[in-house]
Amino acid sequence: MKERRFWKKWLPQRNGSFLCRRYCGSFGCGSGALAIAIAKRNPKAEVIGVDRWGKEYASFNKPLCENNAKAEGVENVSFRQGDATHLDFPDETFDTVASNYVYHNIPSKDRQAILLETLRTLKKGGTFAIHDIFSESKYGDMQAFIKKLKELGYEKVDLIDTTNGKWIRKSEAGWMGLSGSALLTGTK
User: Of the candidates 48, 34, 39, which has an alpha carbon nearest to the alpha carbon of residue 6?
Assistant: First the structure.
């Protein structure tokens, strides 16, 4: 419940709806929860959830996502297998891209490159909300990355600490291994 309130508050919104005009991507969708939530709030949009569904998370798979969408009565969402390090979508495909606690799990020496791959699929004027463990050990200097995004023309780029009670408390983040959790938002 707390997670849903958080996304409702922090994902870019207009009149209580996520700003997803037509085509939205949810990367690392796992069980499909975020993709389904976006689709429910944007019934005229097409939402695609993408995940690699590997052996590490064997309980998550495409049929589970499809069953979850069906259980929620959501028909404007689909799911496909894919790799966040090389997304099989053309540049500027999506109006909105979102992710929740995904990229820190991907073995990589350059997770900022994974973020850039996600943002490559975002249309000019599109919005993004990526929640993850943005610690320096996992991502490097995020302030420098934000500066780079702004230099590339991104606007309203912000890294919002989510361990200050908006999602979880710092004490919870510590024992849950989520220290450094933050939400990266902005517009392309």
Answer: 34
Q: Which two tokens stand for residue 60?
A: 């998550």
Q: How many domains does the chain have?
A: 1
Q: How far apart are CA 9 and CA 67, in angstroms?
A: 26
Which tens digits make up the pLDDT trace of 139-167? Answer: 999 999 999 999 999 999 999 999 988 77
Structure tokens at 10: 């922090």
DSSP code of 2?
Answer: H
The Cβ-side half-sphere exposure at 100, using a 13 Å CA radius, reads 20
- CATH number of domain containing 74: 3.40.50.150
122 is written with which tokens?
């975002």
How far apart are alpha carbons 38 and 19 in whole angstroms?
9
Q: Report pTM.
A: 0.87
Q: Which domain holds residue 61?
A: 2-187
Q: What is the pLDDT of residues 1-43, one digit of tens each?
A: 344 444 454 454 444 445 677 899 999 999 999 999 999 988 9
Task: Spell 33-46 as b/e; 16+ CB within 10 A means b.
Answer: bbbbbbbbbbeebe
Is residue 123's pLDDT more than 70? yes
Q: pLDDT tier at 97 (50, 70, 90 boundaries)?
A: very high
